[in-house]
Amino acid sequence: MIDVFGDGSLWAVSTPGHTQGHTSYLLNTNDGIKFIVGDASHFGYAYDNSYPPAALSEDLRQQAATSLAAIKTFSGQHPDVKLVFGHQLP
Asked: Residue 32 above 80 pLDDT?
């Protein structure tokens, strides 16, 4: 993770898999903390059922599954953080 502005408002989180170098973002907003997972999980249905996104190689498929598992672990530890999926309107 990298604190983009150095003030804790926006964190870039490495979530490779769907694409090499895919990045998700954790935002501290006035409305609470939001985790924009982008294409690390396209839809809530896929997230709920642990379906990682498509990837172009076996190595990326494994990375996608690892990234999704890490997001799910984080979410379980921080249920107050709202997840925002890549292809689903908030």
From this structure: yes
